[in-house]
Each structure stands twice: as C-alpha cells, then as structure tokens.
Amino acid sequence: MKNEMTLSFVAIEENEALARMAMTCFITPLDPTIEEISEFKTIVSEAVTNAIIHGYECDGKSQVTLHAVIDDNKVSMTISDEGAGIFDIEQAMEPMFTTRPFMERSGMGFTIMESFSDRLSVESVIGRGTVVKFEKTFSPVTETSRMR
C-alpha cells in the first residue's frame, strides 16, 4: 500500500495536538500497536513543538508543514518550518541541551525522536528554517502484535 499526505497549519501550540491526531489517523491502515502509535505521536509532537517554539517563537502566523508517505509498512515523514533555523545542529541534538530553559524545556526532543524512529535527520539554515525527516517501520500485523 502506498499513500501520501501534506498538512500545513498556523504555528500555535494548540495545533501540535492537531498534527498528532491527523498523523495518527493517517497511519491507522498500518494497524499499529499501541506502543508504535505512542512512539509515532511522540516523534510528531516533538518535531512540531520545536518548529512552533524554536523556529517561530510562537508567532501565531507562520506555517508548519508536515508531509508523510506510507510505503508498505514504513512511514517517511518531513516536518518543516521557515523560521529561525538551528545555529548548531550537533549541539541541538545533544541530550539536555536547550535554548529555552526559562520555558522549562528539557532539551530531550531530538534524543526522544531519534530513539523512537528508525532514521532521523535534521537540516537547517539560519533565518530560512529547519527540516526534520524521519522514518519509522511498523510491525507486520500478526495475531501476537494485536495482543500487545
């Protein structure tokens, strides 16, 4: 099975839930386990939150765009913004690094995304935005996986 979708929305914190739910509905035909759904929603949530908070500083007018492709049991997804960009991607991906400690940000977003995905990459240009790409392969549906 192959399917594809694109979703764009205003960069406000309330739309993080929209992104999570829309993407969860999109992967439903893969019959994911609860654990797979939870991991996938977490990746989407972290990437979208980064775009809203760090990319746009919650400006409430810019756009975050999600693009996803299902091919067999693998989902490839891109979350992009045209915001501030990341000065040092390597540093940003270090556990516990945050540029927003006053907002009680833990600095674990990229670490979490990396641990829940099969592949994660980040591209960014200062003043032009950031693109987060990830892939996640879902388990083939079996009676055992349905019981998890």
TrEMBL record:
Residues 35-140 form the Histidine kinase/HSP90-like ATPase domain. Its EC number is 2.7.11.1. It is an enzyme of class 2 (transferase). Keywords: ATP-binding, Kinase, Nucleotide-binding, Serine/threonine-protein kinase, Sporulation, Transferase. It comes from the Bacteria. Gene3D superfamilies: Histidine kinase-like ATPase, C-terminal domain (3.30.565.10). It catalyses: L-seryl-[protein] + ATP = O-phospho-L-seryl-[protein] + ADP + H(+); L-threonyl-[protein] + ATP = O-phospho-L-threonyl-[protein] + ADP + H(+). The keyword Kinase applies. Belongs to the anti-sigma-factor family. Binds to sigma F and blocks its ability to form an RNA polymerase holoenzyme (E-sigma F). Phosphorylates SpoIIAA on a serine residue. This phosphorylation may enable SpoIIAA to act as an anti-anti-sigma factor that counteracts SpoIIAB and thus releases sigma F from inhibition. This is Anti-sigma F factor. It comes from Filibacter tadaridae.
